């Protein structure tokens, strides 16, 4: 055979051996490429599922990186508006119309059934096909009112209404529950109107812990599970990756701590109430009462805003009856009435040695009716004067996380209430999370024996006088210090020799009772020079051997804060 003939045969095609070799090589390449392609597709679906989880989290809680001026996390989304996690509404399959609907027993059902979609006693997650429907709509089919899902503050929708991305992959519905796994496969595939993962399969959504973690109808956590690429999951606990079928599950958990900062706010409110107590009674009863009651020697009056009484919109009386509920405005302003007048008895404000000295709390930043003390939830802190026999108590109350309380009639501002009797029930549902701080009068209104054994006033004349203010109960007066009296007194004289003094900063005032425009009447007038000597009484007996004063130290204090 010639060389030319052999070349022609070679050009005619592949030999059988060559074809087999090509097929082997192609099979090898396919074997290498297919796992890689499947792996890439799986990774893509995982990324898509995580992106869906991020969208759900955003709809429920808002952006992760939202903070206020103080650096505190700002909760947005549904929770930011409504103040709670969305409820899970039961979905039922309508086999006649081939669609998911909502059970009505009987229709119209004004309150659609909700669920934890998980019962710890017989752990099954997902079998009630629950969905947080209020994330994307406010109503359900089946005769419900148009706003049946809308909570106070709802400003949605917070995400698009879900669609089945692969409607053609539906399965036949198994009526029997004998094969639970087949039932779950059906629920995963029939996904119209339900949240789905990257594979287009419905998410399993439930409350971890079941009904025990639904408080007042509100879920305290939510769990979203994708069954992963194998479309299978263990309904006992889909988040347990050690269980069969759960190895490839993807999970999103929104825990109570992410949205409900009640514990933090409760602690902050407790500290606020203690701060108010500190403003009221200082360090008493174990230390010096340098608070409001230590200076004024009485409890602050409680003020209410009255639109009908403008311009005196803040007042402390209903006619002539003092309010038993209100705001202790004297803690931050010397003139608590809206017209700028004082509403404490004159002896409590103008008497030197017993009176308002400074703001004991920072004034609330709001104005008019909104200028009230608020707790960490931003709600008004409530104050009550207790009725006899415990009328010496001032009760401070925060409503807590749920914003509710049950204590008398809110509209009756002069109502007599007894926190220690039957008027307040701490087991009442509205009161269980209240934060309450009762402050007894005995914590601040204590007296002790105070003895000023001797004082000397140099350069005194016949109009130089002295008065010792021991508290709201009264004072002792010494007058006519001068050439006829060298300005020396001792306990043997019986003038400042002793007596009970109220806890706090008490004072002795020395003054010239001869102002040009003031009578010589044993009273300290605004235009009379004076000098104040302070004594801190913190509960124990106090004996002062001697004090020395010079009239050259006297000064006019008419425009200065009262001592």
List the keywords:
3 domains; alpha+beta; elongated; Immunoglobulin-like; disordered C terminus; 563 residues; four-stranded antiparallel β-sheet
Question: Care to describe what's here?
Answer:
18% of the residues lie in helices and 19% in strands. The protein is of the alpha+beta class and 563 residues long. It has three domains: 1-260, no CATH class; 262-441, no CATH class; 447-553, Immunoglobulin-like. A four-stranded antiparallel β-sheet has the order 12-13-14-15, covered by helices on one side. It is elongated.
Give the helices and strands, then pairings.
Layout: H1 3-11, H2 16-61, H3 77-82, E1 92-94, E2 99-101, H4 180-189, E3 204-206, E4 214-215, E5 218-219, E6 222-226, E7 250-254, H5 256-259, H6 262-281, H7 292-296, E8 304-305, E9 314-315, E10 317-318, E11 321-322, E12 325-326, H8 346-349, E13 382-385, E14 393-398, E15 435-440, E16 447-452, E17 454-458, E18 464-471, E19 474-481, E20 488-490, E21 500-502, E22 504-512, E23 530-537, E24 542-544, E25 547-550
Parallel strand pairs: 16-24, 17-25
Antiparallel strand pairs: 1-2, 3-6, 4-5, 6-7, 8-9, 10-11, 12-13, 13-14, 14-15, 16-21, 17-20, 18-19, 18-22, 22-23
């Amino acid at each position: 055979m010639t060389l030319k003939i052999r070349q022609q045969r070679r050009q005619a095609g592949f030999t059988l051996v060559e074809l087999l070799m090509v097929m082997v090589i192609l099979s090898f390449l396919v074997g290498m490429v297919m796992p890689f392609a499947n792996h890439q597709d799986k990774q893509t679906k995982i990324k898509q599922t995580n992106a869906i989880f991020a969208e759900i989290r955003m709809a429920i809680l808002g952006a992760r990186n939202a903070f206020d001026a103080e650096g505190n996390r700002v909760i947005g989304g549904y929770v930011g508006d409504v103040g709670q996690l969305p409820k899970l509404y039961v979905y039922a399959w309508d086999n006649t119309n081939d669609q998911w609907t909502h059970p009505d027993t009987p229709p119209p059902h004004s309150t659609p059934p909700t669920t934890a979609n998980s019962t710890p006693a017989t752990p099954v997650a997902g079998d009630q096909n629950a969905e947080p429907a209020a994330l994307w709509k406010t109503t359900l089919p089946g005769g419900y009112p148009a706003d049946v899902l809308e909570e106070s503050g709802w400003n949605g929708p917070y995400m698009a209404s879900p669609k089945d991305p692969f409607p053609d992959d539906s399965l036949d519905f198994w009526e029997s529950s004998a094969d639970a796994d087949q039932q779950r496969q059906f629920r995963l595939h029939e996904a119209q109107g339900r949240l789905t993962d990257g594979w287009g399969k419905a998410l399993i959504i439930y409350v971890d812990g079941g009904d025990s973690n639904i408080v007042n109808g509100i879920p305290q956590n939510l769990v979203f599970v994708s069954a992963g690429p194998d479309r299978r999951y263990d309904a006992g606990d889909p988040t347990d990756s050690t269980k069969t079928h759960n190895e490839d599950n993807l999970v999103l958990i929104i825990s109570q701590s992410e949205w409900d900062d009640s514990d933090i706010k409760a602690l902050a409110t407790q500290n606020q109430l203690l701060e108010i107590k500190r403003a009221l009674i200082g360090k008493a009863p174990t230390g010096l009462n340098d608070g409001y009651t230590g200076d004024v020697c009485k409890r602050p009056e409680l003020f209410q805003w009255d639109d009908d009484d403008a311009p005196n919109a803040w007042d402390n009386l209903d006619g002539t009856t003092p309010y038993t509920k209100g705001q202790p405005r004297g803690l931050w302003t010397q003139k608590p009435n809206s017209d700028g007048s004082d509403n404490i008895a004159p002896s409590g404000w103008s008497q030197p040695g017993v009176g308002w000295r400074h703001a004991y709390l920072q004034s609330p930043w709001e104005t008019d009716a909104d200028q009230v003390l608020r707790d960490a939830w931003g709600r008004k802190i409530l104050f009550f004067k207790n009725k006899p026999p415990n009328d010496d108590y001032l009760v401070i109350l925060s409503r807590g996380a749920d914003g509710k309380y049950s204590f008398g009639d809110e509209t009756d501002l002069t109502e007599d209430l007894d926190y220690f009797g039957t008027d307040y029930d701490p087991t009442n549902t509205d009161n269980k999370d209240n934060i309450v701080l009762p402050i007894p009068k005995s914590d601040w209104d204590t007296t002790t024996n105070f003895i000023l054994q001797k004082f000397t006033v140099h350069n005194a004349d016949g109009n130089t006088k002295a008065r010792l203010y021991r508290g709201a109960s009264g004072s002792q007066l010494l007058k006519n210090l001068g050439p006829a009296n060298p300005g020396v007194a001792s306990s043997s004289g019986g003038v400042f020799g002793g007596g009970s003094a109220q806890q706090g900063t008490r004072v002795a005032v020395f003054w010239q009772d001869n102002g040009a425009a003031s009578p010589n009447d044993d009273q300290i007038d605004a235009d009379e020079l004076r000098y104040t000597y302070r004594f801190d009484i913190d509960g124990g007996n106090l004996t002062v051997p001697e004090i020395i004063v010079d009239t050259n130290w006297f000064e006019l204090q008419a425009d200065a804060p009262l001592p």
